[in-house]
């Protein structure tokens, strides 16, 4: 008879958890979207489990019904067999009568004179020969008719028995097939249960590792205690598209010689396998980047005055001049082909010889449903003119799509650059003490800042008293302007060079 299927959830540690417990490799990181992916898979497994349970329950009912049917058919076969036995027994009496009459008739030669007829004659008082003959024939005919009826009944019962046995075999075959399907469904259900358990464990494990990134407000699994890595990145035509710019927490866009621009990309919450092309420093970098609490500074070098300024700053030099083995050149044309892996620089810069520190918050973050401080106004975009470089930002519903000199800004992977927030920090430039041709960004003091956030603009102010202070963005009443969590680009154009749309 049918036995209930029992499920046992197996407790097994997944390979992914083992990798997580061992820590992320130096060349990679945990995907910040991993928890969302696991939660989606968990929900899918839950639905699949419900379907498997429903399938198993349906198969259980089918097996129960078939067991009842098989039992009924077995009883039916026994009843037909009993009826055949009774019918065979009932055949014996007319058959015996027929045989006895035939034997008597053959022995005496004259059926009218056999002992049976004499007995009938005595009992019935029949004296006429014709009547005795008719009675004899009637007895024989009756016995034969009874035998014929019984034989016909036996034939029918034999057919019923064959049909019953065939139906039983069919039901047993159907039950065997359903039991196979039932066992397969149970195995799938068990595997899903194990996967669900592993998935939930991995979600819980990742959640225990998750941190709120200081500079983006986003969740991250990378080390919150490591220093900022600031990278100078080329931005001329020959250098584009750049690698890693979309993974930076913050990108500062600085004016350099001839109305061109160069990036200072800030990496902290996440990393990427390749960043570049890496280019040279400017004296203004030491002032701008000092707010990140002794960051690692990746660059391709600089003139004597810039190197002297770096040596006197709080920045930790981990550039190509002092750490050439951490950099490599690709097949592109120099000087636009120098690249590095941030994880390698972090690995070296975490040593005891480097007095680095974790960054302090630069921005305040708000939830998407919170009101925006500072009398925001609707804005669809802005155009910035650095002289030889024209930048456009256009709101696309989730970020500000960037365009440079008429071409969409994309990274080396072809991904469009569209930061969550753009801060236009109007900046004054002095002459660099290291090179009279080079502009030196003034990033202490105060000035005007336009903050593009969530399809709106807030006209605010920036302020920073000392090099060790973090830049603050406040409205006219001195209230901090909070931005949405995400990546931020800070454009640093001169006054009266920006047009809003």
What's this model, at a glance?
By secondary structure, the chain is of the alpha+beta class.
Describe the structure.
With 501 residues, the chain is an alpha+beta fold. It has 2 domains: 30-209, Helix Hairpins (Orthogonal Bundle), CATH 1.10.287; 219-500, YerB-like fold (3-Layer(bba) Sandwich), CATH 3.50.90.10. Helix content is 40%, strand content 20%. Strands 3, 4, 5, 6, 7, 10, 15, 18, 19, 20 and 21 form an 11-stranded mixed β-sheet that branches. The radius of gyration is 48 Å and the shape is rod-shaped.
Radius of gyration: 48 Å
Please report the distance between the alpha carbons of the first and last residues.
Answer: 79 Å
Helix content: 25-40%
Number of strands: 22
Which geometry do the CA atoms define? rod-shaped
What is the arithmetic mean of pLDDT? 86
Output the structural class.
Answer: alpha+beta
Map the helices and strands:
Layout lengths: L14 H8 L11 H75 L6 H10 L4 H81 L1 E2 L6 E2 L8 E5 L16 E6 L5 E7 L15 H7 L6 E3 L5 H9 L3 E2 L9 E3 L8 E3 L1 H8 L27 E2 L2 E5 L4 E6 L4 E5 L2 E2 L12 E5 L2 E5 L2 E8 L2 E9 L2 E9 L7 E3 L13 E4 L6 E3 L1
Parallel strand pairs: 3-6, 4-21, 6-7, 15-21
Antiparallel strand pairs: 1-2, 3-5, 4-5, 8-9, 10-19, 11-12, 11-22, 12-13, 13-14, 15-18, 16-17, 18-19, 19-20
């Amino acid at each position: 008879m049918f036995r209930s299927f029992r499920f046992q959830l197996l407790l097994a540690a997944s390979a992914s958890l083992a990798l997580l417990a061992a820590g992320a490799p130096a060349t990679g990181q945990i995907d910040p979207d991993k928890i969302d992916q696991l939660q989606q898979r968990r929900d899918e497994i839950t639905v699949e489990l419900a379907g498997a349970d429903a399938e198993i329950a349906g198969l259980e009912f089918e097996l129960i019904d078939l067991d009842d049917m098989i039992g009924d058919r077995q009883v039916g076969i026994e009843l037909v067999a009993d009826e055949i036995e009774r019918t065979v027994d009932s055949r014996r009496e007319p058959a015996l009568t027929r045989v006895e009459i035939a034997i008597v008739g053959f022995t005496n030669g004259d059926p009218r004179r056999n002992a049976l007829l004499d007995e009938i004659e005595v009992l019935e008082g029949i004296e006429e020969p014709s009547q005795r003959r008719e009675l004899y024939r009637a007895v024989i005919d009756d016995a034969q008719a009874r035998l014929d009826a019984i034989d016909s009944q036996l034939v029918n019962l034999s057919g019923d028995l064959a049909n019953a046995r065939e139906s039983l075999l069919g039901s047993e075959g159907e039950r065997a097939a359903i039991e196979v399907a039932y066992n397969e469904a149970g195995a799938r259900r068990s595997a899903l249960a194990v996967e669900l358990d592993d998935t939930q464990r991995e979600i819980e494990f990742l959640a225990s590792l998750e941190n709120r990134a200081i500079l983006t407000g986003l969740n991250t699994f990378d080390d919150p205690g490591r220093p900022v890595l600031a990278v100078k990145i080329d931005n001329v035509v020959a250098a584009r598209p750049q690698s890693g710019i979309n993974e930076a927490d913050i990108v500062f866009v600085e004016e350099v010689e001839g109305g061109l621009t160069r990036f200072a990309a800030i990496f902290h919450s996440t990393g990427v396998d390749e960043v570049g092309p890496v280019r040279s420093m400017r004296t203004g970098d030491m002032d701008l980047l000092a707010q990140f609490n002794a960051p690692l500074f990746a660059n391709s070098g600089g003139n004597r005055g810039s190197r002297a300024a770096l040596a006197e700053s709080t920045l930790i030099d981990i550039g190509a001049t002092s750490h050439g083995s951490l950099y490599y050149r690709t097949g592109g044309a120099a000087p636009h082909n120098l690249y590095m892996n941030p994880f390698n620089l972090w690995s070296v810069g975490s040593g005891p010889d480097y007095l680095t520190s974790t960054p302090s918050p630069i921005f305040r973050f708000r939830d998407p449903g919170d009101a925006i401080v500072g009398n925001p106004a609707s804005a669809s975009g802005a155009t910035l003119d650095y002289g030889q470089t024209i930048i456009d930002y256009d709101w696309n519903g989730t970020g500000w799509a960037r365009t440079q000199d008429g071409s969409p800004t994309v990274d080396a992977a072809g991904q469009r650059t569209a930061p969550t927030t753009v801060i236009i920090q109007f900046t004054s430039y002095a002459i660099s003490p290291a090179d009279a041709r080079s502009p030196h960004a003034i990033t202490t003091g105060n000035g005007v800042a336009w903050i593009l956030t969530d399809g709106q603009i807030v006209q605010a102010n920036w302020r920073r008293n000392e090099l060790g202070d973090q830049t603050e963005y406040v409205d006219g009443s001195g209230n901090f302007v909070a931005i949405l969590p995400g990546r931020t680009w800070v454009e640093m154009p001169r006054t009266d060079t920006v047009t809003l749309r």
